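Worked Example 4.2. Consider the chain below.
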Amino acid sequence: MAVVHAAEIRVLGTTAIEDYHAHLMRLDRASLIPGDDRGVDAHCLGLLASGAILIGAYVKGVMRASAEIVPDRTARRAEAAITIEDGFYDRGFERELTGKIIEEARRYHLTDVRVNEPTASRCYKIPMLELHTYASV
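Applying the procedure from the previous section yields the following structure tokens:
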């Protein structure tokens, strides 16, 4: 569990899906999850069904940033996404969540992770070498 600017970053269990759902509802959904509230509902159900790994950054008990890691069927590769609410971009969450994604990818023996950042319209791949380098630190 890491603390960034009075925020607690932790891996979430399935019981925290309500916190994750509430976080997604506070985002600018027009660019992230098309449709109405049912799109967010369906996305959260899909995450539970796929066995996704969820990570939350909590500020004063409320999730304000998150990462989701969705392994593919081989359980060797994964797609990840980072979301940060308006007003919380300058707190270092992107770096801390990326580090947590790497940590969890190692733990689950993932060899290839592609991270999508819808808030910044960026996508980057974490190379396998980087995943293994962090493992020895």
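The two ends are 17 Å apart (CA to CA). The first helix runs from residue 17 to 26. Compare this with Example 4.1 before moving on.
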